[in-house]
UniProtKB/TrEMBL annotation:
Residues 14-57 form the B box-type domain. PROSITE patterns: B302_SPRY (PS50188), ZF_BBOX (PS50119). This is B30.2/SPRY domain-containing protein. The keyword Zinc applies. Residues 216-371 form the B30.2/SPRY domain. One of its GO terms (molecular function) is zinc ion binding. Residues 315-345 are annotated as: Disordered. It comes from Eleginops maclovinus. Residues 115-146 form a coiled coil.
């Protein structure tokens, strides 16, 4: 780039056009070298820029201004886009705040219900235990009264026998012997007892009832949560181009099962050749999605998200950071009726098995994944 000197006012003074002088040749810079991206004078074009592509300064100026206008327009569009995104983020944050406040209020109501249920069951338990204790005390008083009566009877008989033993008259002693030798009619007390450890069964039953109340509350909350998730419901179908040769897909690409023999399928780049996997056709870059997968009565199955760049050839380790577990870690596997959850910094997903169905809720931020 040639260094520009002070403007030179030449014969075009009346056009109010200012020209700059070439520092080497002291001539007006009237051309622009496109090859070197520098302004040049007539002498420059004859020497160092002889075979270069040059245009007149005014033409280059118009081109540059056009580029600047395009850049300015692009910057305006970028500003507008960022203003829209700023407003979108602000609205999302405000909406998140409202949802959070609503969830806090809802959780407070749920906790209040649980606390009320616990307090109610505790009061019922205390009342039942006190009633049992009162029953024990009544029973003990009855038995003590009966024992007191029998003790009095036995003490009276003991006094009578003591008195007979002091008599010296043999006739009276022999006549009194048959009645005096018989023991008084009393109760057999060896099997009679007042149990003091009957509270444990009551406490266990009360805790079991409380657990039932909590489970009913959990079912209600799960139903409400499922209703909320349904607003993000999507229809996911399987992609036959990605299915392993060991898998058989239904005609509508909604069901999949394992074959006893490996099929002869085209080895396209999208297909898994070793790992028995299949991806969904749908791809998601961000947002929230919800779908339900029927896992049947299988004892083991894998379910989750994968990056579109997942390695389709060779084995998949399933370790943290590996392809199919990239978004959910080791927890992205389901066995039988397990609860499977996952979480990552840029995305999260969770699934809760209910009977033979697994509902998958995905929340993804700025990363492309396939079901």
């Amino acid at each position: 780039m040639l260094k520009l000197l002070k403007p030179y006012k030449g014969h075009k003074r009346r056009t109010k056009t200012l020209c700059h002088l070439c520092r080497h040749h002291k001539q007006p810079l009237t051309k622009f070298c496109s090859t070197d991206q520098a302004p040049v004078c007539g002498k420059c074009m004859e020497k160092g820029h002889k075979h270069h592509q040059t245009v007149c300064m005014e033409r280059e100026q118009k081109r540059v201004k056009t580029c600047l206008r395009d850049t300015k327009s692009s910057i305006k569009q970028m500003i507008c886009g960022r203003l829209r995104k700023k407003e979108e983020i602000k609205q999302s944050a405000d909406l998140s705040k409202k949802i959070t406040e609503r969830e806090i209020q809802s959780s407070a109501q749920v906790c209040s219900k649980m606390i009320a249920a616990i307090e109610r069951h505790q009061a019922d338990l205390v009342e039942e235990l006190e009633e049992k204790q009162q029953e024990v005390e009544r029973r003990a008083e009855e038995l003590i009264g009966e024992l007191t009566t029998e003790i009095g009877t036995l003490q009276a008989r003991a006094k009578e026998l003591h008195r007979l033993l002091r008599y010296q008259n043999p006739l009276y002693l022999l006549q009194s012997f048959p009645s005096a030798s018989r023991l008084p009619t009393t109760r057999e007390w060896s099997e009679v007892a007042v149990h003091s450890d009957n509270c444990m069964e009551t406490v266990t039953r009360a805790v079991s009832q409380l657990m039932n109340v909590c489970q009913e509350l959990v079912k209600k909350l799960s139903a409400e949560e499922a209703e909320k998730m349904n607003q993000y419901a999507v229809d996911v179908t399987l992609d036959p181009e990605t299915a392993s040769g060991w898998l058989i897909l239904s005609p509508d690409n909604k069901k999949v099962c394992v074959s006893s023999q490996m099929k002869n399928t085209p080895d396209n780049p999208q297909r898994f050749n070793s790992c028995v996997c299949v991806l969904g056709k749908q791809s998601f870059t961000s947002g929230r999605r919800y779908w339900v997968v029927q896992v049947g009565d299988k004892s083991e199955w894998d379910l989750g998200l994968a990056r579109e760049s997942i390695n389709r050839k060779g084995a998949i380790t399933g370790s943290p950071g590996a392809e199919i577990q990239e978004e959910m870690g080791d927890e992205g596997r389901g066995r039988g009726k397990d609860k499977v959850e996952g979480n990552r910094e840029q995305g999260s997903w969770d699934a809760l098995t209910l009977l033979n169905d697994a509902g998958v809720f995905m929340s993804l931020q700025g990363r492309r994944g396939k079901a």
